[in-house]
Fold this sequence. Notes:
The chain is mainly alpha-helical. It contains 17 helices and 7 strands.
Amino acid sequence: MVSVLNARFTALTDAEHKRYTAVPDAVEQSLGDLANELYQQTDNPGAYIDRVLDYFRNEGFTYTLKPPLLGKTPMRQFLLETRKGYCEHYASAFTLLMRLNGLPARVIAGYQGGEWNPQGEYLIVRQSDAHAWSEVWLENDGWVRVDPTAVVAPERIEFGLDAIRLLAAAGQAFGSLNAEQLQAAIARPAMQMLWNRTLWFLDDLNTSWYLWVIGYGKDEQQNLLDRLGLGSLNWTGLLIATSLIVALIASLQGMLLLLSRYRRRDPVVHLYQRFCKKLEHIGMARNLSEGPRDFARRVMALHPEMNESINEITELYVSIHYADSKDATTMLQLRAAVKSFRPTTS
């Protein structure tokens, strides 16, 4: 993420203000009461932001990659009952609490963290680094970034999602270790580091291949030949050398494809695609721009009789695919739910 510190901003238009303060028509009264109670304890928007963050920090909220399934009133259940979730839960809940008191706010989805590749000296950003946070419009400051996840699980922000996974696998509670202890807890063994170096090397080769193929021009050609000591070869020699280089890169590319085969065969994605295919049979095709929850909300609005099953399948899929909660029990639940799902048009 890039922040332009000296960027100019203009006031929100009426349309933008309406858009970023909109709340669901059927928002529960208990949520309005909570937002009002928190706001009454402050005297300005900045203080209200801090008060909501304090609510997350001090009222028993925890970060987990395996949150309990939420029903028809997910925000009420999360804020007042379960209080367990990951970044999307916290960003959505925080944004709603802002809007309930008329503060323009929005959820931002992007990436946080990544893995530094010392081999190629660049940052590797994966889908597992996806993150969600909020922005609040303040009259004198414009859009201000607020990450409520940071007050609940600072480990997630400082050390990335891999740290959360390693702590969870070790049965270690989040927030119970200081920085030095956390570094020791997530330290990788020697064999893991050797494997990482191999992966960094292959990823660097793969990246270089795409850079050379996509951006290959006359200057790059001559530069490459000079670096390889081939700048003085005739066309026959260049042809032979190029063929050898292409063969080598193709072989390495094949190795990378073999390593990534499991991603293309992700059974979780396959199950969700089966679910979407069943909905297509009743005319409810998922748009390419729709996320799983957006799609679920659209279908449930038109077919409320299927709300329970659609919400269950969607939440199971999100918890596995986006939060990396690939335990056997959750997978079995998703498989059974998709298998028994029978969409109707009534």
